[in-house]
# Entry
Amino acid sequence: MMDDSELVAMATPTGSSSAGDAVSGRGQSASNEDDELFYIPERRPSLDLGPSPMDTSHWHYVDQAYSPALSYGSMTSEDNSSNMEDEDGSSTRVQLDRADSYSSCYSLDSDDCEKMIPKLKSKDDTVSEPSDTPELIQDPNEIRHPSLTVAFTFKAISDTLGKLSNGDIQRFKMMLWKRYPQSFNTPPQGMDMVDLVDRLLECYSLEVSLQITKTLLEEIEQKKMIDYLQTLCIRNEVRHDLSETLKRTYGEVCEESATPGEKRPFDDVFTDLYITSTCDNGPNIEHEVMTIAKLDSNREEVKLLSTKDILSTERLERSNLKLMLVVGVAGSGKSMAVRRLILDWIEKRSHQHVSFLFPLPFRELKQFEDSEISLLKIIQTLYPETKKLREADYRADDCKIMFIFDGLDEYNGKLDFQNTSLLGDQTDSTTLNVIVVNLLRARLLYRALFLVFTRPQVKRYVPWDTHYDEIDVCGFRDPEKDEYFKKRFKDPDQAARVIAYINSSKTLRIMCHLPLFCSLVADEYQQVFTEQGTRAELPRSITYMYTKLLLALIRQRRAIRAPPRSLDKERDFLMKLGKLAFTMLEQGQFKITKYDWKEVGISSEEAVINSGLCTQYITKPFVLSQEKVLSFIHPTMQEYLAALYVFLSFTNHGKNIFEQHLKDKFKGMFRAQKVMELYKSAMDRSLLCDDGKLDIFLRFLLGMALKTNLELLQPLCTSSVKWPTVVEDAAALIRKRIRENQYPGRNSNLQCCLEELGV
# Structure
């Protein structure tokens, strides 16, 4: 058996001999002692196979290794090795494109491989491998983990060997040549890392390549490197399994109007969102009739972002941020942004500096509210595949973890940042509230990244001494509105009809900046097409869609944030909020101050967080001061709630709020007023407003007389009101006002009122 010094001598060419000659035996440097042990078979001439097919039964196939220039050229040592994957792990013989690489794979017992064969001293002698060569045994029944790919294996071995010193890497190469001369028939000392690992993967399977690497690392006493390589393999398996779990959870969406159980890939329905780099921008104030000045909110220059920019590598390089709040009004698309970010990470489109991404929606965290538990246990409960990870993986510099907390506004716990006990270990058991507070204080997992999605907060969710940033999800811009409907409707004709209809109503077009509103519109029109055919007439009432939006916010979406409330309390809340909306509308006011809230007597948290009908932002009336103010999520929502207040006041109490002076304050309770008196007084009041501040309000009030809207609003009514001829009578009154032409500037809105009545 040759020792290392002899191998080194053989690797050093002299005269005209080459290193390859030394290995193959064609040089003159082989010793007599070696001649006694080995004979060198002469290279056979190429066989003339003729036209007959080649017999490939004796070939040994190995996993495909792409050309280094193609497969590995873009990989650098700075990349996180745990993120490496490859889409094709097939087994095949490979022809390399690089001129400086071997042109074909040498199989373990191929006749093409030049190898030194032990000479038999007698016919009874047997051939034996060197005793220090490890047995490369694979269980044929063992199923390869799908995460073990050519790309990952190459990257893992390269990164591990790259951490060795020059001396150790030379020892590794020498050991590789010594143990496996049939694969490395020239000394590997001159090979760079790409060629070395590439050659290893050509001649052996992925599992065997890893086994060889670990065995030789053990021989050169590099146990830490063995642990490092094993860690990369475990993390790679966990990442793959986690990605599969997240893909099943977030990869498909179920549309309400679709066939029950039918799901569509999220990419087929997702549309880019309008995300800005600054918050406290105030609500969308675009309006069909009025020109509303920007509410005195944030006037900083806005930079447009995408989900790929959230805690991206570039953003982290510019700052030491670990915590980011992503805020947006109800229905603005925050949940869509969460899905987009998760799927982009899975598909390697963004955030590849993150090794593991853990979504922790607060509606799922609620299951841990009544028990003591650790953060690590929460992660392992929601994502069982993470049980393979070690505790050190959560603190490692080369294992970046990102947590996504969706729906902080759904959390009912008390966020006391001054008196809550400190928690610094993810394995310590405590209450969910302590865990949440410490995460927001950046006490837990200080190397991790945290994303928190929430509605604009009435109370600050993060303490003043925690460094964080905020961005705002604002929904859709005009091009994205059209794109959404094109994706929602598989039939292009249906999509075109819906887009044309939305464009015919400017108020609907504006309100479609909310993805939730777009979804409600698409659901409604999809049902119309399903029941009545593609050429069916689409409903003209904007009141119907606003009523659907109202009920979605105060019922379905409120249910996941706050305890259930009785119908009486729901009605009382809407009456108080509607009264405020009507009062502000008559005054031309769209900003709600804290004094307004005191007079109304309702909780701002209920209006912003639970119901989502309002939003909050911060104004700076003076240089060194700031004020929290509220507004409705859109001026038209304020107009709708004002109309609802007038409608319910008349329906439930028989009161016409347009009557300035009642001789008897109980008059409305005892005299059944005619509906037309209400509409006549409302119309006359609207026509007197040159700025059109009551125009949309009037449309909503008239629209509530339609049967479809009455059915939706009936639970809010304490008694049923007969509206047998109100539509015809209201239409006749509108036509009369148009003929009189006393207010020519208001005729266009009166015509819209006729459309709202469906006549």
Observations:
- The chain is about 40% helix and 5% strand.
- The chain has a mean pLDDT of 80.
- Residues 223-250 form the longest helix (28 residues).
